[in-house]
Amino acid sequence: MKISPLYLHQINDDSLPCWPVTWGVPLNQxxxxxxxxxxxxxxxxxxxxxxxxxxxxYDDGSIRRxxxxxxxxxxxxxxxxxxxxxxxxxxxxxxxAAVGEDLLAGAAGDISISKNSIVFDTPHGRFDSFxxxxxxxxxxxxxxxxxxxxxxxGPICAxxxxxxxxxxxxxxxxxxxxxxxxxxxxxVVLCDVLALNLSDNEFIELDELRLHLRRQEGxxxxxxxxxxQRPSIARSALPLEVRAEKLKLSIINPExxxxxxxxxxxxxxxxxxxxxxxxxxVVALRNFYEYFPFGVRIxxxxxxxxxxxSWNKKPWxxxxxxxxxxxxxxxxxxxxxxxxxxxxxxxxVGKPPLARTPVEVYQLGGxxxxxxxxxxxxxxxxxxxxxxxxxxxNKGYGKMNWGDDYSALYTNQLRGKGHIVWxxxxxxxxxxxxxxxxxxxxxxxxxxxxxxxxxxxxxDFCDRSSKESDEGALRVHSAAHWTAGTTxxxxxxxxxREWYFATGDPRPLxxxxxxxxxxxxxxxxxxxxxxxxxxxxxxGWGLIQMAAIxxxxxxxxxxxxxLKLCGDLLDYCREHDGLTMTMPTGGSWLPKDNAFHTATVVxxxxxxxxxxxxxxxxxxAITASEAFMDERTCTPEGIAVYITGPEQAFPMQQAAGFAMxxxxxxxxxxxxxxxxxxxxxxxxxxxxxxxxxDHMRIPGEFLQIGDDVILNVTMLMPNTQLLSYQMRxxxxxxxxxxxxxxxxxxxxxx
Length: 750
Description:
This protein has 15 helices and 36 strands.
């Protein structure tokens, strides 16, 4: 059997002899059991050496989610189409990448791991690597490697997670995880460095955190480099230092200091290549400017990557349970090797060739069946709106903010007590960007997904907490990302699920395991009880989160929680003629029908039904969705409202977009087109307004001019909190509108 197409997008002009690329592919039950019978086929019909791994399996042992890795040649900018063979092994490849005892081996050389260093024994020199850190007031911390765990082993790719700790007087202060990947043919080491506060301290403060790569013999003489705002490759004598400061890049070398200031929005990547003794060592740094403060320095015998530089003069205050990942790469090459240019490697690290399994292949494997194929010519208005609401959001810069955005609403409400309130990617923005990427293949969506999912994992996810109820969940939108706690109504797992299925990376799997433990504790504490009244928001989002976890982990206790919750909500819904939720209004607490939160239950029940096929989930989705069909949750014009009640019953994009998703689920379960007709009014409303997002009708901010105070009536800036809810519903609904032929009625017709 052959599955095609699998796409490979190269967005850089530079070609490469090869580069490691990984696809995640969903399969139907019974299609494949043995990964040895898997190969990739290029456009010429040639079979490529392929590495395959089963991520999840069906009950009969066949593979549900497959991960395939290869090293195809990468021509200049363009798209390749590949096919996946499930019954034909590729050419037998010699073991080019492998994990052994204290050893990782690949084309870049052998990497040995000891208690106090990582040694790179390459064909072009031997290097010793280690880390240093300074605590507050420049107190030196001791570093040692605790061990490593393999997560991938040849022949194409081998990877290990090296766990290390910094100590002060035998007490752990900081954990650092180095995820190292090497390859059969590509002479690079991809290195993700995660610094994480898993200590008993609510905060730790670091004056510096550095990774050193030191030559054991010989010296470098000069370095080529390219950074933002530099139109071409420059060359410098040593020592050379490049600094990413706030809104500024500095280059410091024997000739003095040069500075580039401004918004720096061009897409040049940051890399440096030190040469000497007939060898060349390349270091490439992803998101160098965005992750300020950030630095790299090259001395004649040493490279130093400053994850938190001492020149910043301000300590890094790291909350318990939070951290930061920096993605870097080293390449070890002959000085005159024109086949592997430093620029091509630097760009491949910063903007890698993108492996994309498109919508139609997902749907063949029974995944994303309700997702509409990309239709820019047939539905230009819809596709343009989707791009706009995804791409044109505000962005936070800096090490702990990049990937997230802020809430103007909550900031103006002073919820941050004078500080910016960050959205913490409420609504699972990474998941929506992933779905948009597999639909469109657009680099912008991939980058937004990648940067936001890393921010989520590093900063917003609580990996450790002295407050047990917070550990294993995402923190609610708040000042500094972490001044609020956790709750089932603000937790999402679908983005992490797709990260794992697309890459096989061990990090999202670890996060999902912790989320599962947290969910079980929440259930034990009564968070999902429907009596005397369910907290609809927590129940609905809880079902959506649990469904995503179960697709990855299959925990029996969570299945039980999901089905019991569906039964309890169905009973409540029938007894009370719908779902109500207590909301504040007019100074008192009254039960209110709520389109936005009811939609979470409908979508959560639909996901439960998809997973288990249980009638109780089917009936809950249909019964709850009836609330969208009358004025209990909608205006007389048929547009969903956030909260019913005389003072708050106004149409709202966020609610309309989300209600569309609930109506779509009802249609997919019944085939009844009246649900789609109802949703079309809401789709028109959202398309007409585009990025003009209103939330709770609080428009702008108060301005004081002299003795006068005015309310500056402006629409709020788009952000992930509001747009994610709208996009979730639209991406569920569009396929239903297309299947019924109604979608053409809202788009441009030529």
